[in-house]
Amino acid sequence: MTGETGNILELPDPDSWGCSVTHLAKGHGLLTIDLINRGVTHQAKGLEFTHVDYFSGWTAWKGADFRIGTDQEFVELIRRIAPRYESVSEHDLLNTHPFDTTRLYICKTAQGDLIYINAMGGRTFDADNNTIVEA
User: pLDDT category, 41, cuts 50, 70, 90?
Assistant: First the structure.
């Protein structure tokens, strides 16, 4: 996990997109979010995360500026939500399943709130379910 800069979904004007959680299947670890740009084009897309271990945020928000969290952010989140890992070194924690196969996705909303998603992968897709960007 390197901590990529924002807008990994390559959306034009990410703050203009509305996000709404439409599906969260815990057993299958699937999170689906509708992305709607109500600007001139009224574009609609979907966002899907697979093997989701953790989601923290609103069920609907404005702004879709997603980035990959740094190792430090990932470790801080794990330790905040699961104190049993406080004594585990960062190196060992990042090499422990499931943390060794997932990434921390962070969305900064247009209002500055942060949405956290720990998942194996993410992608945007069009109305025909064609992948646009994999993240």
Answer: low
**CB 109: neighbour CB atoms within 10 A?**
18
DSSP state of 77: H
Sign (positive/negative) of CA torsion 125, 115, 56, 91?
positive
User: What's the pLDDT band for 29 if we cut at 50, 70, 90?
Assistant: confident
**Stated length of the chain:** 135
Distance (Å, rounded) from C-alpha 73 to C-alpha 101? 16
**Of 47, 45, 50, which Cα lies nearest the Cα of 30?**
50
Task: List the one residue out of 1, 106, 108, 111 whose CA is nearest residue 54.
Answer: 106
Q: What is the pTM of this model?
A: 0.89
